[in-house]
Structures are given as structure tokens and as C-alpha cells.
Specification:
The protein is an all-alpha fold and 228 residues long. The longest helix is centred in the C-terminal third of the chain and has 27 residues.
């Protein structure tokens, strides 16, 4: 027998880190609702909306089509594009006050917090997953909200409160390591399966590239609000 939930009112609420995989929602009032997350196969009123959303995002952000390169040269070009975007974001944030750099919009991460999370992403996926290091985390790196503030066995400091320049210095170091790795890539390494993991090096780089691009976009989206 299916589990049923009826008559619930979620108006005005924020719901995080949930899964509706395989769920069926019927007779819903979705006016003015906002969703984000993995949406593959999502069907609304008998229309699969994932491809429509992807096409619109690619129209708005043409560089998005570069985020899953299938060769070494494409990986180098994608990383160069992302580094350029992040440098522009750092320059933009540098013109704001410290309070603005730490300001949260709609309960999302601040600019500095998002940059700290990008550090975590590179530490986790490049140093941890691809290179197999056991504790690659800088103390200021920021885990996602579904993990503990200090995951067991990591050097992360949950009380860290770095400045923009301190955060950028660490991020520059991480991006330098990523750049050095990508510059040394060859086709065999790109397609190497990662032992004990469902992903290859290529798949892991796709995660890094996608996270860098998405969080950079989120930062600038929120800075638009902060500056207003």
C-alpha cells in the first residue's frame, strides 16, 4: 500500500535536503513556488521539464555547455573559463564592505561562505576522490549543510571566520593544484576508474566544474541583491 500525505500546507516554507525520488504529487498548488536541485525525469502536467530547464540555462549561460568536457583539451578550456569567472567575482566582492561580503540572502550562504564551500569541493573531489588523500581539507573549507560542520576525520574548523582575502588566498592555492593536475592530464588518466568509487576521473572533474560554475552563479545572483 502506498503512503499518502494529504491536505498539507507548506506555504511560505523553505524545505532543504529532501528527496522526492519516485514521488507523485497530485492536485498541487505550485503558484510562486521555487525549486532547485537534481531534476532528471521530473514531469509536470505530463511534460518532462528537465530538458526545457537545461536548454533555457544554456541559452542564458552559454558557457554552461562546457561543463562536461569529454577530452583533455576541453577540460583545460573549461577550467580556464571557470578561473576567469571566479577572479571576476573576487574583484566584485572586493569592492564591497565586510558586512556585505558576509551578508546572507534568503538564508543562503554569503559570498565568503560560498567561496569556502568551493574550497571544500576541490579538496573533496580532487584531493580526496581523485588523488585518494585521507584528510585534504583546509580548516576554513565549508561542508554542505547535509554534513556535520566538522565531518569526522577532517581538519575543518567549524568556527572559522576568514576574511575575503584569506578565503581567496586558500582558494587560489586549490585552483592552482587543480590547474596543475588538469595540465598533466592524458586520455588514459581522464578515463581512469576510481577504485572503490562509482565515478571515473572524468566524472569527478564534471562534479568539480559544475559546482564551481553553479556556486559562482549563486554568489553573483545574491550580490545583485546585496548591492541593491
Amino acid at each position: 500500500m502506498s503512503d499518502w500525505t494529504e491536505g498539507k500546507d507548506f506555504s511560505g516554507q523553505t524545505i532543504r535536503n529532501i528527496t522526492f525520488k519516485g514521488a507523485k504529487i497530485v492536485a498541487a498548488d505550485l503558484r510562486n513556488a521555487r525549486f532547485s536541485g537534481e531534476i532528471g525525469g521530473l514531469t509536470i502536467n505530463d511534460v518532462e521539464v528537465g530538458p526545457l530547464i537545461a536548454a533555457e540555462l544554456n541559452r542564458r549561460y552559454p558557457e554552461r555547455s562546457m561543463l562536461r568536457p569529454d577530452n583533455v583539451d576541453g577540460s583545460k578550456a573549461t577550467l580556464a573559463m571557470l578561473e576567469k569567472q571566479l577572479a571576476a567575482t573576487y574583484d566584485r566582492a572586493g569592492g564591497l564592505t565586510e558586512a556585505q561580503q558576509n551578508e546572507s540572502v534568503d538564508d543562503e550562504w554569503s559570498c565568503i561562505e560560498s567561496l569556502r564551500h568551493i574550497i571544500f569541493v576541490v579538496d573533496a573531489w580532487l584531493s580526496g576522490t581523485i588523488k585518494g588523500e585521507t584528510d585534504p581539507y583546509d580548516p576554513i573549507s565549508l561542508p554542505p549543510s547535509f554534513l556535520p560542520p566538522k565531518p569526522p576525520g577532517t581538519s575543518i574548523d567549524p568556527d572559522a571566520a576568514p576574511s575575503l582575502d584569506e578565503t581567496w588566498s586558500v582558494l587560489q592555492s586549490r585552483l592552482g593544484s587543480l590547474r596543475a593536475y588538469v595540465e598533466r592530464l592524458n586520455p588514459d588518466e581522464l578515463l581512469r576508474p576510481i577504485e572503490g568509487h562509482a565515478r571515473s576521473v572524468q566524472n569527478s572533474l564534471w562534479v568539480i566544474f559544475g559546482e564551481l560554475w553553479a556556486h559562482n552563479r549563486f554568489i553573483n545572483r545574491d550580490l545583485d541583491v546585496v548591492e541593491r
